[in-house]
Predict the 3D structure of the following.
Amino acid sequence: MDVLHAVRTYTTRMVSTPSAIKVLLLDTHTTPIVSLAATQTDLLTHQVYLTDRVDNLRRDRMPHLKCVCFVSPSEESLEALCAELNEPKYGEYYLYFSNVLSKSFIERLATADSYELVREVQEFFADYSPVLPHMFSLNHVPSISSPLLGSTLSNWDADALGRSVRGICAVLLSLKKKPLIRYERISPLAKKLGLEVKKFIEDNTSLFDFRPTATAPLLIILDRLNDPVTPLLSQWTYQAMVHELLGIVNGRVDLSTVPDISKDLREITLSPQTDPFYRDHLLSNFGDLGEALKEYVTTYKTSSASTQEISSVADMKRFVESYPEIRKLGGNVSKHVALVGELSRLVGRDSLLEVSEIEQGLAAGTSSGLGGGLNADLRVVKKLVEDPKIPGFNKLRVCMIFALRHQRSAGGVAAVKELVELLVRSGVDEKEVKLVHLLLHVAGADKRQGDLFSNENIFARGRSALKGLQGVENVYTQHTPHFVRMIEQLVKGKLKDFECPFVDPPAGFSLASGPSAAQSSGASPPSGLLNRPQDVIIFFVGGTTYEEARAVAKLNADASAAGQVPGGSAATGSGMRILLGGTCVHNSSSFLHFLQSSIPTLPSNIDIGTMPISSPSPTPSNQAAGPTNSTSLASPGLALQLGNIQLSVGGPAGTGVYRTAEREGAPLVAVQAEGLRDGVEGIRDGVRNLFGKVREGVERGLGSQGSAA
């Protein structure tokens, strides 16, 4: 499932016909798509003399040239095409559209083509930006002027919904996939999008008439607000750092504000297709990147030194042949040296190492002194907020992560209030400080599903502790995006249907018990449903991140390795391929702008200057009230009921003995174990991984001794 290859194939087919010198016309939507998939050299190879915009009215009339148009089927592009055909500037027109055309659209084009110059009209489903082979974006960054949400937090903006449906369906058509669709249960936006994608497929059955596969592909639609932590974190891999600190827009990076930057490097292009150093190191952490760049510079010095000694005709010939490559290498070296140098300057200026260590401790809960308790975390965060060297934006991000983690902790409300007041006193703008409360209103504990911090019951905390025992590659990259656990459950065939239901369950499938229930009842389950899917497309409503793209790349690499090794572990997926997409690609700045764009959708009775009211937590036994019986996602992992006394293990208020209200007809003794099975399985998997690492170390030691002998 390589979206970059799919769009490149479409682009090549478009510019290959006719075989003559031609002009390529694009619109605002298709320009970034083509720029990510094809280089200027690629276009020149196919005799594309000029690339321009279809809405540019100042183009010269050149009737001796052919014209290839690739535009979106939007009203603006249709009007521009009709104006072009009414007053043609070229001899022939070949029209290609990035999505499905309506009958009325084609009729209007035919009416406008009064000179009968249109030779071809086709649909090429490249209605998305191929960021990486395993990642795509719809380039819709939510803002007040271009919102994602409608009148409320649970409603889509009509234009945004249509854009997302067309983009996802273009991905499916370009990859020839007709998937089953699942969505995050708690998100009405994800459900609505899934329903609309399903309707689009049903309305265009002839387009989706693909050869059936042994296992049906799977489209999982997730909500960004169910994991608000990932886009708030500092990043330490090359591609993610560049986007976080400088911003990557359609493969381009603006360096015009960098001190003493040369004119040639004020805007640079980062493309894994044409830049081998970027392709090989875009997922490397910052430390490894520095070593790789040093070797890269040494290679260039060696190559350039060999061209300085010219003492014969043969030397001159070798110099002429190698000079273009050396010049290209020199330009690439200069680009990456300038870019990494600027990243290093920003890291030092903003004290990002110190900030990131605290962020990771809060998010992953595995650092010493962090993620372990409210008071310890509060002391560390207060010290950071009071530090005048730390920029206000970084202080704000850390406080937002703290608020998300401790919203339901005993004393959490008071701690967040204290930090908010401290932010204002430290000089952070009050409008920005209100984003702490806004985040809790739109993505707080009551709005999410799943255990975001692995701390809501004793078994999740055990799983988190075992994760810490296994060690991490880097203290600054220990956080794992929330959706990875869902993929791991999917790989094991344990992704629960009440957590991630199907949009339209196939016949014979029970949402309560899954396909196994259909088997036991004698019904015939749908083809391919009982097997683990081989192709999975993850789509984030509200935007994805480069950290999640890194996680997908690792999952794909592990699955590929397991598929190539006989007896590969089923836990790695045995060949499962994952594609990641989203309405946009976020960094922390764009995510906060997304939050700000949601303010008009809030109910009038919500004050973003105050903390939201969370679900009530259990009170100690010396108080009158007891634990509620709501089906909260933060319910205790184990509860033993003895009359009106309850022993609670885990849960939002921690382990303890609580007094409950007596209920008529209630059993004298009752045991509740909501997370017992999952907790035991998590601990078992953690222990297996731990012993696996020990065994690998022993085998490596024995192997080195054998080679030494």
